[in-house]
Amino acid sequence: MKRRDSLKTLLVGSVAGGLMVSGCAPRTEKDTNVPEVPQLPGYGRNEAEKAHDAKVLAESFLNEHELETIAVLCDIILPSNAEFGSATDAEVPEFIAFIVKDMPRQQLPIRGGIAWLDNHSNKLHNLAFKACSEEQQKAICDSIAWPGKTAPELIPGERFFTRMRNLTLTGYFTSEMGIKDLGYEGNRPGVWDGVPDEVLKEHGLSYEKEWLAKCIDQSKRTEIAQWDEEGNLLT
Amino acid sequence: MQVINSSKTYDVAIVGSGAGGGMATKILSEAGFDVAVLEAGPFFDPAQDEYRTQLRWPWESPRRGASSDRRSFGDFDAAYGGWNLEGEPYTEAPGTRFAWFRSRMLGGRTNHWGRISLRFGPLDFKRKSIDGLGDNWPIGYDDVKPYYDKVDKLIGVFGSRENIKNEPDGFFLPPPKPRLHEMYYIKGARKAGIPVIPSRLSILTQRINNQRGSCFYCGQCNRGCSAYADFSSGTCLIFPAQKNGGKVELFTNAMVREVTTNAEGKATGVNYINKLDRKEHHLKAKIVVLAASACSTARILLNSKSSIHSDGLGNSSGMVGRYLHDSTGASRAAFVPELMNRKRYNEDGVGGMHVYTPWWLNDKKLDFPRGYHIEVWGGMGMPSYGFGFNPNDLNKITGGSIGGYGDGLRDDVKKYYGAVIGISGRGESVPQKDNYCEIDHDVVDEWGIPVLKFNYKWTEHEVKQAKHMQDTFEEVLEASGGILMGDKPGKDRDYGLTAPGEIIHEVGTTRMGKNKQTSVTNEYNQLHDAENVFVMDAGPFVSQADKNPTWTILALAWRASDYLVEQVKKRNI
Ligand SMILES: Cc1cc2nc3c(=O)[nH]c(=O)nc-3n(C[C@H](O)[C@H](O)[C@H](O)COP(=O)(O)OP(=O)(O)OC[C@H]3O[C@@H](n4cnc5c(N)ncnc54)[C@H](O)[C@@H]3O)c2cc1C
Ligand code: SF4
Q1: With contacts defined as CB-CB under 8 Å, which chain B residues touch A178?
Q2: pLDDT digits (tens, 9 = 90+) for B208-223
Q3: Buried b / exposed e across B114-152, counting CB within 10 Å, b at 16+?
Q4: Whole-number Å distance between alpha carbons of B159 and B175
Q5: Is A190 close to B348, i.e. CB distance below 8 A?
Q6: If you count Cβ atoms within 10 Å of the first and of the last residue's Cβ in chain B, which end, N or C, has fewer?
Q7: In angstroms, what is the span from residue B372 Cα to ligand 2's centroid?
Q8: How many angstroms separate the CA atoms of B422 and B232, rounded?
Q9: Does the structure show a pLDDT above 70 at A28?
Q10: Cβ within 8 Å, pair B401-A146
Q11: Burial, A9: exposed, middle or buried (Cβ in 10 Å; 0-12, 13-18, 19+)?
Q12: Sign (positive/negative) of CA torsion B471, B476, B479, B481?
């Protein structure tokens, strides 16, 4: 999805990060249509949680300008490479839009951080950050992206950028694309039968014989266990 | 508002459906009793899709599994509630601290607990005889051993027969093989001269019956197992009790306020509030079993006042709520350069560590009493909210720069994935009469029930134990090839000792004993002051060993239930 398209759908609260919307009227201020009822597919919620999610989904916090700025920042922080898409391809701005509503403690630092950034870029270029050229944007980022090297007067920017970096990376690596990129191979039924031999070898390790003798023989995992009176396993 | 009376009188009312309540339900219903189980939380069954969080992906949660006021350990954790319960506060006396973790749901905290299932050893029941501190239990290991054996066989626990003095072996299923970071830990422990053995968790590496499956290694026991391959009270005790044809009536969303008593001081049932319509009910029962967890049970007892039990039911000794104690805890982590750029494979394993270190210095003279065991964590786990924060902080150690932006951040995250080992100590504290919970008469919860106020301070014993933990951690982690992360917490921070309650092993509020003046229950968990009331959670613990409490809660609840049945047969109750 193009960044622009994705943002548009984000603002109308439509298909975003696994969200489903029943009814499709855009939620604008003057809109008099029946309000849409955004819903999530089930993920094991109890009643109180369902009510909380529904409430958060129906709210809006960040405005269009803020969301667009976030999208620009997300892709500077995590651009696409030959194999994987960018943060916006992984719908990170949608994730951040939700998190900021769900975690009120994020609201002031994110809103204020964007305002700081715009104020700073206005001073330098008389342009809002998102309207700056890529070169100008990166130059600003360079001045706030390296903790410990930031000019004292730019510290608020550094704080904001660090927050954005964290949210972008966590949003990405908890997305389907990011997990593939990371190479996490679990979360599926399987049988653990020890560290692969080649990995042990690579690390110069091996299982002790006495230890292995205690471990489960996976061919017996479905046999019903029985013990003698001492507690020795018979099966 | 009027109290609505139950038309029926139950043989037994069981309050709470966690470890203790589940065991009581199973044993007492199978003995033919007509049982009512009252649980303050809603129904929960991890096998039904509407409750299931197991095998879900982080993106299925809009907050990517982050913790919230509604689930402290995150969206996928099987604990409704946690450090915070909406509408049900508690208070702390000025200058003291207690963290109270509650889960409100069928099965209580056994849905998400760590499954570490350790027996107390012979020394653990008689610590006063060894160090002169606290009190001995009125019972010993030999009294409980037959019940530990039965719990092992009924519920299933993996482990290995090791023949270590104070770490009794049981009826074990074979353990899983260690993971890679655990191999590093084994290497480090061997070098440091510290024992390490396969862990002991109530997870079925092999089937034990036809009702429950065997583990399929998703590493997510804390989410509750849809195959029932790990222990939780609902899946392994309450549902089977119902299926076996027992007379078990389940009252969920039923918040018990008090135990009602008659003119002789005997219990007649309980008053509870149906949370769904906020109406108050009286449920009649011949016997009441309290298993609402140690502090909740103390609260119910203290709120059950009558002319005979003027300071609260069971409280003629003034001991209800006293001797509250939790395990000690401290942790440290290290970065292991050899674990950088790991080859990817599925190492989820079981939902917990595959190896651990039992306490090894029983025979050594140290500057603190009692001991601790060491738990190990690490590995290439599933990301959730927070993963990727400070993506290249470890560059501090390897020499790169920190921060920045661009494609390189991806590489940083991937390079360091699974390269950290952490270890945590869990130790025994010395119970103190002056550490207690009481009723706070200034505050009620949303059901109008006066809440608990905690008064708890660690002593020098626990602080010194934490210091020993930190020294050990450094030695083992460095011997494992690790580079220590963060600063070593010093005296100013009590050596990283966790706040009381944070290890979630709170016990002792209705301790057992032979002397009615200094204890609340007898050695069969029966109130001294009312013979038809039993406490079957961790309240009756005299001392909490460095072993996690649940296996002992289960064994003692079974033992107490057998005694209860016998006393009814003899017409003593
Ligand atoms: C994250 C975590 C990890 C843990 N890991 C381990 C471990 O590895 N090994 C171990 O041994 N222990 C562990 N524990 C501790 C273990 O969960 C508890 O020891 C155990 O669940 C206690 O059982 P219980 O029956 O006393 O109470 P709980 O399991 O807490 O159940 C009490 C039940 O009573 C209900 N209740 C409370 N008040 C009322 C009321 N007024 N009316 C009606 N119902 C009420 C509650 O809703 C709850 O369902 C862990 C705990 C946590 C939180
Ligand atoms: S690790 Fe095994 S027992 Fe635990 S939840 Fe997964 S399959 Fe079930």
Answers
A1: 383
A2: 999 999 999 999 999 9
A3: bbbbbbbbebbbbbeeeeeebbebbbebebbeebbbbbb
A4: 5
A5: yes
A6: N
A7: 27
A8: 26
A9: no
A10: yes
A11: middle
A12: negative
State the distance from the centre of ligand 1 to the C-alpha of B19, rounded, in angstroms: 7
Q: What contacts B245, CB < 8 A, 6 or more positions away?
A: none
Q: List the Cα angle A146/A175/A129 in 5-degree steps.
A: 40
Q: Give which of B378, B341, B293, B313 is closest to B100, Cα–Cα.
A: B293
- State the residue for tokens 């940083």: B412
What pTM was computed for the model? 0.95
Show Cβ contacts of residue B550 under 8 Å, excluding neighbours closer than 6 positions: B19, B110, B113, B117
Q: For B204-248, give the DSSP string.
A: -SS--SSSS------S-GGG--TT--B--HIIIIIHHHHHTT-EE
A190/B346 Cβ within 8 A = yes
CA proximity to B499, closest of B125, B18, B73, B83: B83
Report yes or no: B562 and B316 within 8 Å, Cβ to Cβ: no
Ramachandran class of B253: left when φ > 0, alpha when ψ lies in -120 to 50, beta otherwise: left
Q: Among candidates B389, B411, B405, which has minimal Cα distance to A146?
A: B405
- Phi-psi category of B371—alpha, beta or left, where left has phi over 0 and alpha has psi -120 to 50? beta
User: CA of B159 to nearest chain A CA: how many angstroms apart?
Assistant: 8
CA distance B102 to B233: 15
Domains of chain B: 1-44+103-156+231-327+506-573 (3.50.50.60)
Q: Rounded CA gap, B436 and B525, in Å?
A: 19
Helix (H) or strand (E) holding B469: helix B460-479
Give the separation between CA B554 and CA B27, rounded to whole angstroms: 11
Task: Name the residue facing A231 among B61, B170, B384 (closest C-beta).
Answer: B170
B217 lines ligand 2 (CB under 6 A): yes
- For residue A36, is pLDDT > 70? no
Residue type, B142: D
Distance of CA B52 to the CA centre of its chain: 21
Please give the mean pLDDT across all residues of chain B.
98
Q: List the single residue in A141, A187, A221 with the smallest CB-CB distance to B214.
A: A221
Report the DSSP beta bridge partners of residue B427: B328, B372
Give me the interface pTM, i.e. the ipTM. 0.95
Closest ligand to C-alpha of residue B226 is 2
Distance from the alpha carbon of residue B551 to the mean position of ligand 1, in angstroms:
12
Alpha-carbon torsion B14, B15, B17, B18, what sign?
negative
% residues pLDDT > 90 (chain B):
99
Rounded Cα distance, B235 and A91, in Å: 38
β-pair partners for A131: none
Q: For the sheet with B436-444, list strands across it.
A: B91-92, B450-455, B436-444
